[in-house]
């Protein structure tokens, strides 16, 4: 699998010929290396309704004829407000088989409101299982004890927010990494704007010192393989 950080909480995940985009915030992001019309997607996964996670969903899904995978309230909102029809509604704790593997929606401790003020359901994270690998995208969240259970089956990669203020910060993300026990861990949701500036290299040193995970720090637009 090829994993590319698109800045902020946005990621591209390539599994064989399948292209997945998670939480696309590109056209108005100060750190995104690509615009929404430069990305192709077969599936778009959305963790919650905040503008910095849904801003480019409709553009990408419509142009690419992609499938939107999100909590029920968000798929219904995009159907009503943007005419999207290829939808896979979910809820936290549930999973669905898709042609590339399986997607499970996990708990996230965060709020969720869509750009027009509509209720966005509950915020979520995702576990993606494919090619005998297991990836966890925590998305926007605080630290929570059920991370022990998410990591119990083994994780090849965990992606954790480190920005603080709106999500957990570096110290809590190190605690999360301990709970999850993933082989590798990558940071997200930081350095987009001054209020969430963080030193990712210092965070990586903490991960090495306090956990068994290998930290993977990339710049927006850079990729790594799992």
Radius of gyration: 16 Å
Quaternary structure of the protein = single chain
Please provide the count of β strands: 14
How many H/I helical runs? 6
Report on the structure:
This protein is of the alpha/beta class. It has six helices and 14 strands. A seven-stranded mixed sheet has the order 6-5-4-3-2-1-14, with helices on one face. Strands 7-8-9-10-11-12-13 form a seven-stranded mixed sheet. Strand 2 and strand 3 form a beta hairpin. Helix 5 packs parallel to helix 6. The longest helix is centred in the middle third of the chain and has 11 residues. The radius of gyration is 16 Å and the shape is globular. The N and C termini lie close together (5 Å).
Short overview:
The protein is α/β, with parallel strands linked by helices and 226 residues long. Helix content is 23%, strand content 28%. It has a seven-stranded mixed β-sheet, with helices on one face. A seven-stranded mixed β-sheet has the order 7-8-9-10-11-12-13.
List keywords for this structure.
226 residues, alpha/beta, seven-stranded mixed β-sheet, 14 strands, 23% helix, 28% strand, globular
